[in-house]
TrEMBL record:
<protein>
    <submittedName>
        <fullName>TldE/PmbA protein</fullName>
    </submittedName>
</protein>
<dbReference type="GO" id="GO:0008237">
    <property type="term" value="F:metallopeptidase activity"/>
</dbReference>
<dbReference type="InterPro" id="IPR047657">
    <property type="entry name" value="PmbA"/>
</dbReference>
<dbReference type="GO" id="GO:0005829">
    <property type="term" value="C:cytosol"/>
</dbReference>
<dbReference type="GO" id="GO:0006508">
    <property type="term" value="P:proteolysis"/>
</dbReference>
<dbReference type="Pfam" id="PF19289">
    <property type="entry name" value="PmbA_TldD_3rd"/>
</dbReference>
<dbReference type="InterPro" id="IPR036059">
    <property type="entry name" value="TldD/PmbA_sf"/>
</dbReference>
<dbReference type="InterPro" id="IPR045569">
    <property type="entry name" value="Metalloprtase-TldD/E_C"/>
</dbReference>
<feature type="domain" description="Metalloprotease TldD/E C-terminal">
    <location>
        <begin position="1"/>
        <end position="159"/>
    </location>
</feature>
Length: 160
């Protein structure tokens, strides 16, 4: 997984030259090939930690894309769930354990079959991101989070 903060993309939602504290923004590789490279550290916390501030929060997150669109990703799944929405839930920031309500579609033999709702997805964030199999080529360009469709293996769902 490669994720960068690209604050200077022309006419992009979230683009900016300075953060809310006046710190200059720059392109930052947050994760590069799965390795964490940087943190977002505001001026208050940087002073407490005796380090240089980066910026207080990401500007425009861009994830490296794959070669397939959503239909191509779905075609490669024999049995799974396409999550299209989240209906609340929580994540423990200390342990990474999470539980979210989801809605979407059942995938059988590479085809969307029936809609699903009132289901839960549970797990641990570290385990989830370690099970990332493939990224799509379809980031939402109108968002400040340009994240494509993602395929994970071995995710726990309940309620079907």
């Amino acid at each position: 997984m490669t994720l960068t903060d690209e604050p200077h993309l022309p006419q992009a939602s979230g683009a900016r030259y300075f953060d809310n504290e006046g710190v200059a923004t720059q392109r930052r590789a947050i994760f590069e090939n799965g390795v964490l490279n940087t943190y977002f550290i505001d001026t208050y916390n940087a002073k407490k930690m005796n380090v240089e501030p980066t910026i207080s929060s990401p500007s425009l997150l861009v994830m490296k894309t794959g070669s397939k669109d959503l239909d191509g990703l779905t075609a490669g799944v024999s049995n799974g769930i396409l999550v299209t929405g989240f209906n609340g839930g929580n994540c423990n920031s200390s342990t990474g354990d999470f539980s979210y309500g989801i809605e979407g579609f059942l995938i059988e033999n590479g085809k969307l079959t029936v809609p699903v709702s009132e289901m839960n997805i549970t797990g641990n964030m570290l385990s989830l991101w370690n099970s990332l199999v493939e990224t799509g080529n379809d980031p939402r360009l109108s968002s400040s989070w340009r994240i494509p469709s993602l395929v994970f293996d071995g995710v726990d769902f309940s309620g079907l």
